[in-house]
Amino acid sequence: MKFEIEKxxxxxxxxxxxxxxxxxxxDGVVNGxxxxxxxPQIPLRSGGVWRLRIDLATGKIDDWPDGxxxxxxxxxxxxxxxxxxDQDGRxxxxxxxxVPAMLCPAGRGWxxxxxxxxxxxxxxCDWNPDLSFFSDTD
Length: 138
Hints:
3% helix, five-stranded antiparallel beta sheet, four-stranded antiparallel beta sheet, globular
């Protein structure tokens, strides 16, 4: 008789991929100007989805345009898909759920909001990655 068990292992991860359905683009400020729901200027938006690939060690967003600043308070709720990637870009863990706390370093998001400030260098201010989101089974 066979019985399958899940073996825990330690894996090095380098990036967080966050794909989030934003409800109200006007809840963002880009280069000091309020964003526009009809023509959002926030970088890395595709339709209604904001897709960020974040270096876990530094908080730098890959492909963020130089010189662009942003401050966002986006309502996402449970319309997000989050993945941890290894150095080769392979998905190590993934979760579709409410917003992880690490994506709201500028305030309490309560799982509903992405709240962050992004500097002109593409680094998320006060970045503090907490990977417990991926091990939480609730």
